[in-house]
Specification:
The complex is a heterodimer. By secondary structure, chain A is of the alpha+beta class. Helix content of chain A is 56%, strand content 9%. In chain A, the strands form 4 sheets. In chain A, strands 4-1-5-6 form a 4-stranded antiparallel sheet. A 4-stranded antiparallel sheet of chain A has the order 8-7-9-12. In chain A, strands 2-3 form a two-stranded antiparallel ribbon. In chain A, strand 5 and strand 6 form a beta hairpin. Chain A is globular, with a radius of gyration of 31 Å. Chain A starts with a helix and ends with a helix. Chain B is α/β, with parallel strands linked by helices. Chain B folds into 2 domains: 201 residues, P-loop containing nucleotide triphosphate hydrolases (Rossmann fold, 3-Layer(aba) Sandwich), CATH 3.40.50; 84 residues, Alpha-Beta Plaits, CATH 3.30.70. In chain B, helix 4 runs antiparallel to helix 5. The longest helix of chain B is centred in the middle third of the chain and has 18 residues. At the A-B interface, helix 1 and helix 5 of A face helix 2, strand 5 and helix 3 of B.
Chain lengths: 660, 299
Amino acid sequence: MTSTTSFREFMREWKALYGWNLRRSRGISLLYFGLLLLAGPVLTFLVCSVSPYPPSALSSIVPVNSGFSLPLTMIFTLVLAIQRFSYMHNKRSIDLYHAMPVRRIPMLLASWSASLTGLLLPLLADVLLLFFTNVWFSQGAWYNIPLNDFVFLFGSQIFMAAVCLTFCMLMAVCSGTVMDMVISIVLTNCSYPLVIFMVMLLGSWLLPGFNGSYSLTLITALAPFPAMIVSMLFAGDYIGPLFGYDNVVDTPWVFWIWWICLLIAMLISSLWLYSRRKSESAESDLAFPAPKILLRFLCSAAVGLLAGMVFFIIVGATTSFFIGFILFSLMAHAVTEALYSRGLRRFVKTLPAYGAMVLCVTILYLFAATGFFGYDTWMPQNIKSASISTSWYQEGINPSWSCSSNPIYLFTESKGEIARRDRMVFTEPQHIENIQEIQKNLINSRKPEGSPFYSFVANGTHTTFTYDTPSGTVNRNISSSMNDFDEKAYALLKNLQNTQEWKSQTIPYVIDSKGVDSIWIRANEGFDSLAGLHESGGDMIFPDIEYSEEYFESNSIQCEPTQEEIEKLLSLLKKDIEAGAFLGTENTFNEEFLYLDIDISRYFRLTEDSPWYELAPEYKGQIVQQRYQYGSTEFIISPEANTYSYLLELAEKYGEATAQ
Amino acid sequence: MIEIQQLVKRFGSKAALDGISLQIEKGSVFGLVGSNGAGKSTLLRVLAGVYRPDGGSVLMDEEPPYENSGMKNRIFFVSDYPYFLPKSTLQEMASLYRRVYAHWSEDRYQALCRTFGLDIHGRIQNFSKGMQRQAALILALSTQPDYLLLDEIFDGLDPVVRQLLKKLLADEVALREMTVIIASHNLRELEDVCDHVGFLHRGGVLMEQELDSLRLGIHKIQAVFQHLPTAEQLSGLDIVRWDTRGSLVSMVVRGEDEQIQAELEKWNPVFCESLPLTLEEVFISEMEAAGYDIDNILS
């Protein structure tokens, strides 16, 4: 038979069953469409009919619709998969299907493509109807119609629905019964993300330097249903820059490429496995045992690790981790086996597989606890710059170290090139060496004396070391708190913040006075002794102004100084930084001091209906900084600082002006 | 023509078909007879291309049926429990077969619907067992198969429909040289319709023969002797079954009637007669000879 004839035959067989399958699934597809219709076009119609200004109401419809259609799509994917692929799990239906003059591959492909059509046509129709309803109600305000939202949100949903359906098909081919198929689908989508998360958590608690950053792509890499939810987040991120909503872009190409590849791989392996699947495996144990073995492994590992970590948090000993792990992983193994085998008749035979899982986790633990082949102490070569940031705050240590409390965002003129700077960067060799020394010191503190193993740390805080090298950036995340810093490390850290390199990166050096919109001066609780400054005394520094009852607000003033005043303020701030006169004094909270917030939101404009800032078009500078979302940054000014008295001057001047 | 050579089909460690070889001529009606679990249904499923053989070969007109849609277009398999899609009607099932079977005949379908008088718009699930088999037959014959594989087709059919079925099969065989293989325990019905039979036992073929020659080749003898010989003394006969009640001997013997009579004459029987065997009796005798402990089962 020539290839053309063979292809024609293939298409004829596929077409014959495709049409039939489509007819058989039309009831479910219509129900799906009806529910989508209620959540989309009908809801839009109702909302816009009663809204005084329909265009503004439209923006809230798309998220509501996608929030509703997402779980709906997931449910109907599963329902359609069960309906279309369950024929292979029934001995009698197999007699019918496999005796027909249709080969296995076109037969399965016809079921898959018909299910896909039954799933995607309603979704597509819903999107189109929703779009046209939007056009109808937009009253000519075309910019209110988020066309890209439609394309990316629903495009990703449609794609992920295809992925989920293909995954269900693969599970159906590997399963002997519908129940096994459903169990496999549910367990994969629950256990895989959990086990990856737990392994990463184990690494971050045990292995000094392990990054511990949670990649959603990795966590959902083999779990398409959770990945469908993640795809919505990624689609949202992608939409952001198109609308100028978001400044921080993380376009997850890896996610999409991975799922495109996996979709193809799942489709090919399903067809290949189905062509080799024995008809007699219907109603029997799994047609192919691999999923069962893998899922038993994943479930027992995930539950065991979760329980082990909970036990460790409660009791605080490594032994408790292992007790919790063994007890609960064995229980999870037994439950999974009981689900698959409808009993525990073969439980004893499965114990070697359980032992293999325990061995794997133990080996993983040992690797992590012994530094994972030198990962812990490895230092990159040719370091161009190094930085250190902490997720904890300690008096005496400048809060600028803390990346989460005071991130700095750097912007260039091109909106596409946006980088977040949340750390102080050191390039001088001596400073880089000091940072490396701090890292080594912290790593050593994790190993009890005389022990070859690192001990568990789960205090939730960490110190991050970042090294920029010609071949890329190296990050090391060490689970630690201030208590893990010994005297030497503490001294090194304090010395670093007294260097010129550190000072030159503080806010007054990178700020542009033209961008300062206003300043906000507040007094702390110990400010009472400064009552002499006030005309009428008392504990209010600005007594002539009627402030709210809140102490926080009543002891503060917001003003817009002149350019000259701002420049003077910035120059005094620099002077104080050089002198080390403010920020991070040992007893900050027991003294009288002022808070200073500098609002640089002039450079940023709050986009309508969005909490995010975008750069103002008139801004032409190279670098500005802002505190995320609030457009201001905070200084703690102690009485010995040069800035202190000038701030009081400004407060008095503008406070009175405001009162008048 | 169907050629089966050393066919093996295993389910786990158990061989349902253990190296059977069989040849079925085109246009014949072949009866598959065997004990429970002998492998009749398995053999039919292999022939229908549902099961893939684990060993040996199955050729139908020199082509294997497995994953061969061209060949399968010429085969129709009616299983022991015919399956119909959930909530489907005969009309809906017909529309499925119409799509997939190249030789579907709408005229034949309409004619058969009229003949059997089934409600084509009623849900098949609501049909009785016999009516479901009739529905399966209508669909099967409408595809105009060259090979019709029927598993326990007589179950649930009333006597009138059984006769109708036999007539329909005979017509199809006469008109189109359709080959029919019927697996059944209803040997009485098989006797009427089959021209060949094959006895399956424990995954192997005990015997395969033309029905007429089978009947002529095995005899039930009842004889009375003055001096009763033992079975061993009658070693010149191929005795399948031996039973004595007083001086009356009942035996089932393979071979030509004349030869058997001549051999028995040597023992001067007081009375000797040869009776024709029903297929059921042949089957029981052969099964017993093959070690099937019938007495133990029946006791």
